[in-house]
């Protein structure tokens, strides 16, 4: 009989929850869960998904002890794993993050540029509170976080909890990309042994080895050069995501060394992206009209029908699978490879030790055993150092309540650059975020 684990899902009302729950059902044989709690600060939002979850588990995971709550004692006591996916300020504030900069001629995006800065400044407080709430009640639990902007959250948590080695930050974009690569090359993505370096939403695949030692990166680059990056059945299918994938071909034409993370488009082509983004209808609107609506409608519909059999809310298997597989890899010491966010400490030889880098690591019961990548070429080093300076200055601005550091952060960001523009955007974001940010003096 395998050991069974207790899990709490922070942000139970997230649009990603149904997919995650489905992944837990799928993997119950290899990763048995004894008790699952969903926790959220928004009871009404969580209730819709929580009622759907009750039905799903009655149908697919009857022995699971499941509950949803807004009570921290119930949520965080006696836990083995905390999976965290919160969004401070909700989609309403994401919309502001995107629209305020766009109205001033600057990229507005969930995690990149001033939008990511604003979101980071909101996330830090709640994330620190969550870790404290967990540690009071479950000092040994693994905290697996993918709350965005993951780069800034990871650096802030490292600053606040430097000795806590059981907080692991991860992003699913590398896995989404690997699945697309697999489809383009007609290979099972699990066959890839990838080499990757960078920061979160700011990295590159250098090699895609298979079990026989063949590197498939050259073949993939040739394929993209000839046919574009048009993955059939991509994990992300909305129009804005398909445009985003298409930009990979542009980046490879200009910088052919490595396969870029899709988010680099905002930093490499800010003017072009700006001309393509619509300040009156942004990705937040697309998500509210699309994913969010679908997920909540379908959960309500399933509850009305008394069965989850007709629900298709599971739109991105890669995300849910990755998170559950990560917990399983730790629980059963599987030493499987994941791409995660860690303190550099020599992994990229010519970057500072305290940079929070994103690299491949073997994950087991003792946590990540990362793979170093040696020295990186000047272009990538320069890009990363500038972006990390932006991230670090953002975190310092939050901890010190410093307006100057915030201004430095935005000026450092490749999507902004001009300090006058940075000040204008910053002042507007301060006004919009007064309920969430520390006062900046
Ligand atoms: P969402 O708004 O649908 O869900 C977030 C939930 O968190 C909401 O129900 C909200 O009420 C709740 N919440 C807000 N503050 C909270 C707090 N302090 N404690 C507990 N719950 C809180 O958003 P979403 O689009 O489903 O995304 C959720 C999060 O996951 C976001 O941060 C998103 O960026 C992140 N995400 C990250 C990755 C990644 O690769 N790193 C992938 C997918 C989603
Ligand atoms: C990718 C990124 C995440 C991001 C998610 C959803 O998976 O890695 O960090 O939150 O996409 O973005 P969306 O715009 O669809 O909400
Ligand atoms: Mn991500």
Defining key terms:
Rossmann fold, 16 helices, 12 strands, globular, binds nicotinamide-adenine-dinucleotide, binds 6-O-phosphono-alpha-D-glucopyranose, binds manganese (II) ion
Biggest sheet statistics: 9 strands, mixed
Mean pLDDT, all residues: 96
Strand content: 15-25%
SSE sequence, one letter per element: EHEHEHEHHEHEHEEHHEHHHHEEEHHH
CATH topology of the domain at 5-170 and 283-332: Rossmann fold
Question: How much helicity do the residues have?
Answer: 40-55%
- Quickly give the CATH architecture of the domain at 5-170 and 283-332: 3-Layer(aba) Sandwich
Dominant shape: globular
Q: So what's the CATH class of the domain at 5-170 and 283-332?
A: Alpha Beta
Biggest sheet: strand arrangement: 3-2-1-4-5-6-10-11-12
Distance between the termini: 58 Å
Helix and strand composition category: alpha/beta
DSSP strand tally: 12
Radius of gyration: 21 Å
User: Which regions have little confidence, pLDDT < 50, spanning 5+ residues?
Assistant: none
Count helical runs.
Answer: 16
- Tell me which ligands are bound: nicotinamide-adenine-dinucleotide, 6-O-phosphono-alpha-D-glucopyranose, manganese (II) ion
CATH H-tier superfamily of the domain at 5-170 and 283-332: NAD(P)-binding Rossmann-like Domain
What is the quaternary state of this protein?
Answer: single chain
């Amino acid at each position: 009989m395998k050991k069974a684990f207790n899990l709490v899902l922070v942000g139970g009302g997230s649009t990603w929850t149904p997919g995650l729950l489905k992944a837990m059902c799928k993997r119950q044989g290899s990763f048995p869960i004894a008790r699952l709690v969903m926790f959220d600060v928004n009871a009404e939002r969580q209730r819709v998904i929580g009622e759907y979850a009750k039905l799903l588990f009655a149908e697919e995971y009857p022995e699971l002890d499941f509950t949803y709550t807004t009570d921290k004692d119930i949520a965080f006591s006696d836990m083995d794993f905390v999976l965290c996916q919160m969004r401070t300020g909700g989609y309403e504030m994401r919309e502001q993050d995107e629209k305020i900069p766009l109205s001033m001629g600057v990229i507005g995006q969930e995690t990149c540029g001033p939008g990511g800065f604003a979101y980071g400044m909101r996330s830090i407080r709640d994330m620190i509170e969550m870790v404290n709430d967990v540690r009071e009640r479950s000092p040994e639990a693994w905290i697996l976080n993918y709350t965005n902007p993951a780069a800034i959250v990871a650096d802030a948590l490292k600053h606040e909890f430097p000795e806590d080695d059981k907080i692991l930050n991860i992003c699913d974009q590398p896995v989404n990309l690997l699945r697309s690569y697999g489809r383009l090359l007609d290979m099972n993505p699990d066959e890839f042994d990838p080499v990757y370096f960078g920061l979160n939403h700011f990295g590159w695949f250098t090699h895609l080895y298979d079990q026989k030692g063949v590197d498939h990166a050259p073949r993939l680059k040739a394929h993209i050069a000839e046919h574009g990056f048009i993955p059939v059945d991509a994990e992300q299918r909305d129009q804005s995501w398909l445009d985003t994938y298409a930009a990979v071909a542009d980046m490879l034409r200009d910088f052919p060394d490595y396969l870029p993370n899709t988010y680099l488009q905002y930093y490499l082509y800010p003017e072009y992206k700006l001309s393509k983004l619509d300040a009156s209808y942004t990705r937040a609107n697309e998500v509210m009209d699309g994913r969010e609506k679908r997920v909540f409608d379908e959960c309500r519909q399933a509850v009305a029908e008394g069965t989850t059999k007709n629900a298709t809310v599971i739109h991105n298997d890669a995300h849910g699978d990755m998170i559950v597989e990560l917990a399983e890899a730790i629980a059963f010491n599987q030493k499987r490879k994941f791409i995660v966010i860690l303190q550099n400490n020599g992994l990229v030889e010519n970057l500072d030790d305290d940079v929070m880098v994103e690299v491949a690591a073997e994950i087991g019961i003792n946590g990540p055993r990362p793979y170093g990548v040696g020295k990186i070429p000047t272009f990538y080093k320069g890009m990363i150092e500038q972006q990390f300076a932006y991230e670090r200055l953002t975190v310092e601005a939050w901890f010190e309540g410093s307006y100057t550091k915030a201004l430095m952060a935005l000026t450092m960001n490749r999507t902004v650059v001009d300090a006058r523009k940075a000040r204008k955007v910053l002042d507007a974001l301060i006004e919009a975020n007064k309920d969430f940010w520390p006062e900046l003096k």
